[in-house]
Specification:
Layout lengths: L8 H6 L3 H21 L4 H7 L5 H29 L1 H21 L3 H26 L8 H26 L6 H4 L1 H15 L13 H24 L4 H23 L13 H31 L4 H8 L1 H10 L2 H8 L1 H22 L6 H24 L10 H27 L4 H22 L5
Helix pairs in contact: 2-6, 2-7, 2-9, 4-5, 4-6, 4-10, 4-18, 5-6, 5-9, 6-18, 7-13, 7-14, 7-15, 7-17, 10-11, 10-18, 12-13, 12-17, 12-18, 12-19, 14-17, 15-16, 15-17, 16-17, 16-19, 18-19
């Protein structure tokens, strides 16, 4: 086999390894998303383990991961395009495993937070690289199917995170991180054998100044959203961080306009499909991330479900995503990418509106909660394949970068959605939940409208 074969489209269409490539690449997506959600249920156990720890301190186990993941996605995506996705994947996966060991062995809370930062850096390498490896291995007509599977894996990670975390707590919170190790080992061994070489960039020097500006802007923006509820929305810390972030954003745009080879080329946003996709994903996750948290808070706070019972009650959401994702390729082929994405936004809007109109303080799972959960799950399978698949329409040596930009939009909008939800809910009254769900429905409707501009 010669070195140039993996870059040939004809070769990739005939490559019998493409489903194994997708399986290995999807393991990275699963782990990164799983660890984002599994830790939430361990907060009480962490407070009890580390002497002197309080909820504000423990929350940085989650916030550090969220902030660093969002901030590092674009620089890591650019790096993967430049050095090659296979070596980037193997380095990222190995680093994720080592960081997981560090989390599990952490003797003190600051050590755990530091290990989570390293884990987030590894996740930032893995997420865009995994899609950049999988999509080029398939012919164009199978991309919707690939995106459907990739979406289902992400949904499985998000949905099983709280459930797995709750069950593993019976053996101790450290097992939430130790469970990653066998998956990492298998993925690294299989990746060395299965993953093909991928096209590299032109080996130009990385725009370090641009990468630093993007990283600091994303970190500042995510910090404002994640910390505002705890610090106070009008506190000097939040206002100062917000002003600094605005200044950094201005400097970042100015640099990206003038740099000869910027870390993010603004040419990406001149592709209509990509610019519509990044806007649609931002609006969708503004609603979706808040919806998942609101559902958990409603089940535990208003209906008084246990944490594990609430997690199992939410399970139909990822289950409906995975079921619909099996047919997403046919759906996109039948109705078109634009219609599929718009229907996804409408499905989420309908699910949130249903909860807003029917929710009561008396548990009625089958008639009140379940329909909204199923609609939300279906929405993900309809919307994500065409919007995230837009990365594949860009030049091959920019697939990981484009995916990273889409993922960063998802992370930042998720943080913003949760911050807005926290402000609306306040004391978590039933009217507060209804107002929050109506706001989510509005954001999802806006996503559906934006998606109608998606070019086939």
């Amino acid at each position: 086999m010669t070195a140039h074969l993996p870059e040939s489209p004809a070769f990739m269409r005939a490559d019998p390894r493409r489903w194994r490539i997708l399986a290995v690449a999807s393991a990275a997506q699963f782990l990164a998303i799983l660890d984002l959600f599994a830790v939430n249920v361990a907060f009480p156990a962490l407070e009890g383990t580390f002497t002197g720890a309080d909820l504000a301190g423990v929350s940085w186990v989650l916030n550090a991961y969220t902030i660093v993941l969002a901030a590092m996605l674009v620089p890591a995506g650019r790096l993967a395009d430049d050095i090659g996705r296979k070596p980037a994947f193997l380095v990222g996966m190995t680093l994720f495993g080592l960081a997981s060991l560090g989390c599990a062995a952490a003797p003190a809370l600051p050590v755990l937070i530091a290990a989570r930062v390293v884990q987030a850096v590894a996740g930032a390498i893995l997420i865009p690289t995994s899609l950049g490896l999988a999509l080029p291995a398939f012919p164009q007509h199978e991309h919707a199917k690939v995106m459907g599977i990739w979406t289902a894996v992400a949904a499985a990670g998000a949905g099983s995170g709280p459930v797995a975390g709750g069950l593993l707590l019976a053996a101790g919170w450290r097992w939430i991180f130790l469970i990653n190790i066998p998956v990492v080992a298998v993925a690294v061994l299989a990746g060395r054998r299965v993953l093909p070489p991928s096209p590299r960039g032109t080996r130009k020097p990385l725009d370090l100044r641009g990468a630093a500006l993007v990283l600091l802007t994303a970190a500042g923006l995510t910090t404002v959203f994640t910390q505002a509820p705890g610090w106070g929305y009008a506190s000097p810390a939040v206002i100062g961080c917000a002003l600094a972030t605005v200044a950094l954003a201005v400097l970042t745009v100015r640099h990206l306009r003038r740099a000869p080879d910027p870390v993010i080329s603004l040419e990406l946003f001149r592709h209509r499909r990509f610019s519509v996709a990044i806007s649609g994903i931002f609006l969708y996750y503004l609603a979706f991330a808040a919806m998942i948290l609101a559902a958990t808070l409603f089940l535990t706070g208003r209906w008084h479900y246990s944490v594990v019972a609430a997690a199992l009650s939410i399970a139909p959401m990822p289950a409906s995503t995975m079921t619909t994702a099996l047919f997403s390729g046919r759906i996109v082929a039948r109705v078109g990418a634009r219609t599929s994405a718009a229907l996804g936004g409408l499905a989420l809007a309908a699910g949130c509106a249903w909860w807003a109109l029917t929710a009561t303080d008396h548990p009625q799972y089958l008639t009140v909660f379940l329909p909204g959960a199923i609609l939300a799950g279906i929405s993900t399978a309809l919307l994500q394949p065409p919007l995230f698949g837009s990365a594949a329409t860009l030049p091959p040596n920019r697939t990981s970068l484009a995916t990273a930009a889409l993922m960063m939009s998802r992370q930042i909008s998720s943080a913003l959605g949760i911050a807005v939800l926290t402000a609306i809910l306040g004391a978590q009254t039933l009217p507060g939940f209804r107002i929050a769900w109506l706001a989510m429905s509005g954001a999802a409707l806006a996503c559906a409208v934006v998606s109608t501009r998606f070019r086939e």
